[in-house]
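Quick look at the format.
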Amino acid sequence: MLQVKGLILILFLIFLSFSLCCIEEDSDLEISTPAETAIETPVATPQLTPTPSLNLTAIVDKVEEVRGLNLIADIPQREISREELEERYNTTEKASDDPDDILLKALFMVEWDDDLDRVEASYKSSTVMAYYDIENKEMVIVSGYEAELEKIYAHEYTHVLQDQHFNLTEILNQSTFDGRMARDALVEGDALLTCDLYQGKTPSGLAMGVSKVYEDVTRRTLEAFRTFSHTRGKFFVTQLYNEGGGWELVNEAYRNPPRTTEMIMHPDKYTKGEEGVNMSAPDLLLDGWNMTINDTMGELFIRTMLADHIKSSNASTSASGWGGDRLVLYQNETDYLFCFNISWDSPMDADEFLEGYRELMRSVNGTKIVDENDSVEWVVDENEWVLLLEINDSLNRTVLAGSSNPGVLNERMEVLVNGAC
């Protein structure tokens, strides 16, 4: 039986919960009926539990004014302690062969010795001050941060308005990692722009704060995912806001959401409606192996994979020109095998990715075994085998494959090349 887990929910919770202002949700949400999206709705008086030193009425009134949306239904609010927050983030345990962990490690995006859950929980439990809980439709405030809470509350209250007018459960419930990241960038960018207007700032598209530079690859990966929705999302939404002379185009974007991170990174492609090619990946028909991931990752993921090890500018060049992808991971009791089938807009874009990935392999000290015109094979630390192929077809494809078992990788070479399109 095909088991498709994907990175989408795990990584979404990782990077989104990392922010100081975050939408919190559980992984078992069901798609609900879309909410009405009309902007002119009956005004409801917010009924919120008082918070010390905060004039909530003044905050919500001003947020509603600058965002042009009014509260439709009352929401509850509760306060939790820092200890309760830490308990929430430290109770999740995953198996050592968890597909998400295995894939990120196989792609050199997480250190093999790192416990990803522990890194994630440590950061979240020390930074989150408040969040809007989509599932329970309530505001949650962590006690002890009243002095810093006004801006965060304004941000989270924006999520309340978004949810009631556009149904965030429906917006964010996407089947691919790439689609989920794109939608999240819209939601977070909207909230960040609203906060700027709330503070009387001129919309500039610039996100305050500088992404931290970490020496270890695990935190570099998580930081890249965490900041994308804030930096790129805010720029994307501000472009719409300025182009439309207000919120009209932003509101319309909830009815016609961006579908790829490429659209967020290159807003002109959203305007043109340029979508990725629907790609497939090979069915390797391996006895005793299960397909545990089957997903579309997108330009952001590829850029992050490269930027973890090479110059940021080179990574951007190598990842741009993305035309679509499909990534699958197979696992048995002891080994893994992944195949990353990527289409590019032009042969030059494919070549730029090949050069960027060659640079990545030099960075991780990969030993080159084969280097032919259209294929390269490396081994890293004697237990990670990586194969990179260039396919000269109409999709300008590159196929990146890797395994902890070199025999099965080479045995399935023909299927890897010809079985995906």
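Next, a different chain entirely:
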Amino acid sequence: MKALIIINDAPYGTEKAYNALRLAMQMQKDYEGTEVNLFLMADAVACAIPNQNTPNGYYNIERMLKAVVLKKGQIKICTSCVEARGLKEMKFVEGASLSSMKELTQLTMESDKVITF
């Protein structure tokens, strides 16, 4: 099984990114053979900014992304979205890489499940 989760919202403010990552982590836990791919678009590109410092007891998107990567999940970041936000020179969390609409299209067509947040 191949799953693609597309995230569009900022890491904090709403809980869409949080819930998307909860789902990704649960898929990896309960269905070990599942290939999980994340695609960060629009304001979700900020999810991959390193050194996030959240208050104790509050979820941390960076740690959640790292947990997905540890279980062989892929994180793709929309290059044009990064450029539009002036983050082109940003170093992102380990395991995340810049991507394109072409690759998003390919991931979409090759996936058994596509979920958007």
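Strands lie at 2-7, 35-40, 74-78, 96-99, 113-116.

See the schema section for token definitions.
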